[in-house]
Amino acid sequence: MEQKVENRNLSKALEIVSKLIVGEEISRDSKETASLYDEYMDNSEVYDITNTICKNMNLSLYEYENSIFASAGEITGYLDILMMSLRKR
To answer: The pTM is what?
Structure first.
């Protein structure tokens, strides 16, 4: 049973990463991605797997206003995160 839980968490993490890579927003306010947002925020294993995958792909994850965004490399400041958020909307 434990193996299925790990596979489920890996599957959720990969689903999150695949959406972020193509520029989709993972947001609590989106009908399509609210469940993924909750998995990322509430399930520490999904959170850790997602961050590990992104780190190995040189992607940085940012959380802003109940949303998750990905960027190649690092964003240096609050204004950059805000601008990235606005471009997604």
So the answer is: 0.76
